[in-house]
Amino acid sequence: MDKQSAVGDPPAYDKQGYQALPQPTETTVLVRQPQQPIPNDHLAFAIFVAICCCLPFGIVGIVMSSRVRSSYAMGDYQGAEESSRLAKNWSLTGLVLGSILLALYVIVMIGAVA
Description:
- Helices cover 63% and strands 0% of the residues.
- It starts with a helix and ends with a helix.
- By secondary structure, the chain is mainly alpha-helical.
- The protein has four helices and no strands.
């Protein structure tokens, strides 16, 4: 036995037992639709309403605004738009209601002093 053949050459394999794997004959093409922009989440507006005007309506606005991004991330664009609309409506309702309550409070306090 030659020293070089014992150390340097890989062992010989019988090629009759190996067959080539079948190659796929069809091609899959993925077409991605252009991604729509994320709807406005109105988060700043909801936080402002929660701090300055009406806490319950502001909290609901914040929750709805957080649903905008999560729905969009899951690919539910219509759900994100709906949550955006709800966040805006709850925040706007809280702003109007808070402003009315603040105005009534000021009127009552002025009336009590006079």
